[in-house]
Write a structure and sequence with these properties.
The protein is mainly alpha-helical. The protein is built from seven helices and two strands.
Length: 143
């Protein structure tokens, strides 16, 4: 039984490494962390306060400050002070920021469409079912 478990574990590891090498994971992960996550949150969720964006994305305050400075320096966002609370800032996408995140979204959509077309709709639905089953059964694991 132990040999079968080791082989299965290795097959799973190899498959996940293979999936990662397709760049689907890094492509999607970019929307979950860093600058793209902030731009996407600004565009899609209408959250505009750095602390709120950090809460939604899981980005720590110090990392959020660095991202905001970087995006502002690149001209992708505009920072404004809250009229009522001078300690609070609001972020807005600039036209350049909107262009960047729309291009990234289009790139991801094209990749996912190609993935679905290549692998097949029923197989992708099965992959989704298995991923959702793993999420449901494993839940959030605290280490």
């Amino acid at each position: 039984m132990e040999i079968i478990e080791n082989e299965l574990r290795q097959e799973l590891t190899d498959s996940l490494i293979g999936l990662y090498s397709l760049n689907i994971v890094p492509l999607f992960a970019a929307f979950l962390e860093g600058e793209q996550a902030v731009l996407l949150t600004l565009r899609q969720l209408n959250a505009d306060v750095p602390a709120e964006i950090g809460r939604l994305t899981g980005i720590a305050n110090n990392r959020m400050s660095a991202i905001v400075r970087s995006l502002n320096a690149k001209g992708l966002i505009k920072i404004s002070q809250d009229a009522a609370d001078k300690r609070k800032t609001h972020l807005t996408l600039t036209p350049a920021g909107e262009k960047v995140i729309l291009a990234k979204e289009a790139e991801a959509i094209a990749y996912f469409d190609r993935f679905i077309e290549t692998v097949g709709e029923s197989e992708v639905k099965e992959l989704i079912r298995i991923i959702n089953l793993a999420i449901q059964k494993l839940g959030v694991q605290k280490t």
